User: What shape does this take?
Amino acid sequence: MVASLRSLLEGVFDYAGLFPPAKLDMSVALDKYIRHIQGKEEWIVSRFVCPAASLAELANVIDRRESTPEFPVTVIGHASTNYDEWLEALEQDAETMTSFMESVGDAASLEAFEVRLPSYTNMELCLKDLNAFSEVDVFLELPWGDGLEDGFAALAQTEWIGAKGRCGGLDRASFPEPDSLACFLHSAFALDVPIKLTAGLHHPLPGIDEMNGGRMHGFLNVLTAASLCVSGDMSRKELVEVLRDGSLDHWTFTDKGMGWRGHKVSIDEVEEMRDLCLGIGSCSIDEPIVDLTHLGLLTGDRP
Assistant: This one.
């Protein structure tokens, strides 16, 4: 594999096998994750994703195993619909996370906390509330639509809280339009706000979700668009073109850098992008590996 592609994808996927559509049992999901981090695909895998409500179950599964390699965990906070629910959920999540670490010791480490912003109405208060989680990486999932740019401006002022973008789900409406995702990426890199992405990004190139007809974004497109935000002053309109492109013929990868339709990105710029784009939550590691292999990107024999 060429160096630029390796840099683009190194540790890019957090394993979210507990979540739909995979929705595996805890013991099955953990076993699968451990096989991934001990297998030849370990280079592309990062953290294990677990809902806060399931941390006690995860601790029990770890306790029942004869041995478990130490692994990093991303916690997904409880969803809330208003500020009162938000405060109650955060308190509950904090207590659950503390209990989990006391229970598992060195078997696992909590590295990140991700939670959805109920609305932009009380965002300033919500950001202050997240100070209680400052010992881990925090990503606030921003709702799509009006308020997104102001939301990024507020995150930038904190200088430490990142943004999370949901790129798919069980219904067609969960998939953001390319112009919305382009706005998300453009805002993040213009303001140096760390980002995480999740859902709907199982495949390198865009496609249609067979379950609900939603237009899936390609993780190769998203990471390329993000890299082009670093390498040059691309407009949102140009980023939309990157996100829509379904032809691998428009990409080049070498040991020195990568390119898309004549736009060049050095390997240093790819690495700079990954410093800000921390990764993608995915309920499958197998699908990305199979697709990348089929496209000849992992073997170096592109058709």
Remarks:
- The first helix runs from residue 3 to 9.
- The chain has eleven helices and 13 strands.
- The chain has a mean pLDDT of 96.
- The first strand starts at residue 13 and ends at 15.
